[in-house]
């Protein structure tokens, strides 16, 4: 382990399972004190398509996993859809651990539906998760980062936020991801615009998305049968790379998890930082609009 983040603190939203847990574990392996957050410390129900679902994974499990490998993590439950809980979260993190160096806006919501059939509630909730929540958490963190003279914000993007491949694939005709994808495209632009605003304060803002897809408990119901996925380690490593270089060297990028390490020649490590994984070339069928080193 290179311990590149010793002395730094990180807040990772949506880290009770899946991508968020992988990112939190990777940052902790590099020495960061990581605050993990989700709606509740234990698995809690979520409403999708009008039905209540409880997806496995908890903050307690994430903390235990990080502590077992020798890292430091603190669970801080917060419902980010609740304005009162959301708007005090960053200050609570600063009070608990003494500061905030890294903010990873990972928490998400996906309830795919065609435009004709989508409810306004789903539309609003999707935009909340990918615009309002990152906007408010970033606002809260920026003041603290300005005082420190440095900081790193990483938004978790998506290749769906890029222009779809033509001629249109069957997936684009039937997946119902249009509003999710539009929100991710807006989040990419938010990333690039905020990066420009805070560059002179030494704060880096970047986005990282999966080059293909990652099979998480939440994504399993959304991916078509047989869809090729990738391990979470490649995305977690790319997030780490976006949290280490000064803003003057690396900011305003929209990057992707297989493309960036492959093009930059960056070793990808296991989540605990102890072993190097094989180099993994982006598949030929991935979105051709992805720029290998980000855009």
UniProtKB/TrEMBL annotation:
The keyword rRNA processing does not apply. It catalyses: a (3R)-hydroxyacyl-[ACP] + NADP(+) = a 3-oxoacyl-[ACP] + NADPH + H(+). SUPFAM superfamilies: NAD(P)-binding Rossmann-fold domains (SSF51735). It comes from the Bacteria. Residues 8-211 form the Ketoreductase domain. Keywords: Cell wall, Secreted. Gene3D superfamilies: NAD(P)-binding Rossmann-like Domain. InterPro entries: KR_dom (IPR057326), NAD(P)-bd_dom_sf (IPR036291), SDR (IPR050259), SDR_fam (IPR002347). It is found in: Secreted, Cell wall. Pfam families: adh_short. The keyword Membrane does not apply. Belongs to the short-chain dehydrogenases/reductases (SDR) family. This is 3-oxoacyl-[acyl-carrier-protein] reductase MabA.
């Amino acid at each position: 382990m290179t311990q590149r983040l010793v002395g730094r603190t990180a807040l990772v939203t949506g880290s009770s399972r899946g991508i968020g847990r992988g990112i939190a574990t990777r940052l902790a392996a590099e020495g960061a004190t990581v605050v993990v957050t989700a709606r509740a410390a234990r698995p809690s129900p979520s409403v999708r398509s009008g039905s209540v679902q409880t997806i496995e994974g908890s903050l307690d499990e994430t903390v235990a996993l990080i502590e077992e490998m020798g890292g430091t993590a603190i669970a801080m439950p917060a419902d980010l859809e609740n304005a009162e809980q959301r708007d005090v979260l960053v200050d609570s993190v600063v009070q608990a651990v003494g500061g905030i160096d890294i903010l990873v806006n990972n928490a998400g919501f996906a309830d795919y539906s065609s435009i004709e059939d989508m409810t306004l509630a789903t539309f609003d909730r999707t935009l909340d998760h990918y615009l309002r929540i990152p906007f408010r958490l970033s606002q809260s963190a920026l003041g603290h980062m300005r005082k420190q003279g440095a900081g790193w914000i990483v938004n978790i993007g998506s290749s769906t936020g890029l222009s779809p491949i033509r001629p249109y694939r069957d997936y684009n005709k039937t997946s119902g991801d249009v509003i999710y994808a539009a929100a991710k495209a807006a989040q990419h632009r938010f990333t690039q615009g905020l990066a420009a605003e805070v560059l002179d304060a030494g704060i880096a803002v970047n986005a990282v998305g999966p080059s293909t897809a990652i099979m998480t408990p939440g994504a399993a119901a959304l991916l078509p049968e047989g869809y090729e996925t990738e391990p979470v380690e490649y995305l977690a490593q790319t997030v780490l790379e976006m949290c280490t270089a000064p803003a003057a060297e690396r900011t305003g990028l929209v990057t992707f998890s297989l493309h960036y390490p492959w093009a930059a020649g960056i070793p990808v490590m296991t989540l605990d930082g102890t072993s190097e994984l094989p180099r993994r070339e982006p598949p030929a069928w991935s979105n051709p609009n992805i720029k290998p080193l980000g855009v």
